[in-house]
Write a structure and sequence with these properties.
The protein is of the alpha/beta class. Helices cover 46% and strands 14% of the residues. Strand 1, helix 1 and strand 2 form a beta-alpha-beta unit. Helix 1 packs across helix 5, helix 2 runs parallel beside helix 3 and helix 7 crosses helix 9.
């Protein structure tokens, strides 16, 4: 029996317990599966666990919540930033993203940036569906929940993807950082930052609005 090493990254204990219960059901149903589970309730703990895993104990499955507070050093602003780090640190790990976000643009961005092996909307899934989702990711990924499948059927055509600098720009604007001070925290010129801001306003359909409207829209879509 080969163990399956799992890292659950979620700041809600009830959600972590739901994942554990689902994996227990799988191991009871299929004796070949045995899960070694670790839980991280913030980005810092998750990075510690990732950096201290070794080649013999790689995390086979990582459950990732997108709505996480930023890391203590401020370099990772959300679970999406963490997802990109996971892809860099341990590219063979299978990522199951679970989120409460249901904005099509936000979900599309996660699909394009992280390309998760499982993508679940928390409000979509029952305990039985969670069991099947995990089993599918183990054997033959990907597994997408109902809302994600509906999004894919609509064939989102917007190719604009918010990268880490875009998300950091939105975050800094949300906390009141002045444009003139932004080059001190983001490695771009004022011209480059202004161009990014224009692109963001166009992507969010607020091109003629002020920065406050941009920030409010980004919050509504779950980017801040």
């Amino acid at each position: 029996m080969k163990p399956i090493n799992v890292l659950i990254i979620d700041d809600h204990p009830i959600i972590a317990d739901a994942y554990k219960s689902a994996m227990l059901k799988i191991s009871q149903r299929e004796e070949a599966y045995h899960f070694n589970i670790k839980v991280a309730n913030d980005i810092d703990t998750a990075i510690y666990e990732l950096n201290n895993s070794n080649a013999n104990k790689i995390f086979n499955i990582i459950f990732l919540d997108i709505k996480l507070p930023k890391s203590s050093d401020g370099l990772l602003l959300s679970g999406e930033d963490l997802g990109l780090e996971i892809r860099r640190i341990t590219p063979k790990s299978k990522i199951i993203v679970a989120t409460t976000y249901n904005d099509n643009y936000r979900l599309s961005n996660i699909l394009k940036s992280i390309n998760p092996d499982g993508f679940l909307i928390k409000n979509d899934i029952s305990s039985d569906e969670l069991v099947e989702a995990i089993a599918t990711v183990i054997k033959n990924p990907p597994h997408y929940s109902k809302t994600i499948l509906q999004l894919l059927r609509k064939q989102v055509t917007n190719d604009f993807i918010l990268d880490k600098i875009d998300r950091q720009l939105l975050y800094e604007l949300s906390i009141g950082t002045k444009m003139g001070d932004l080059p001190n925290v983001i490695p771009l010129s004022i011209g480059g930052l202004e161009r990014r801001k224009r692109q963001l306003k166009e992507a969010f359909n607020v091109a003629k609005m002020d920065d406050k409207t941009l920030v409010e829209t980004a919050k509504q879509k779950g980017f801040i």
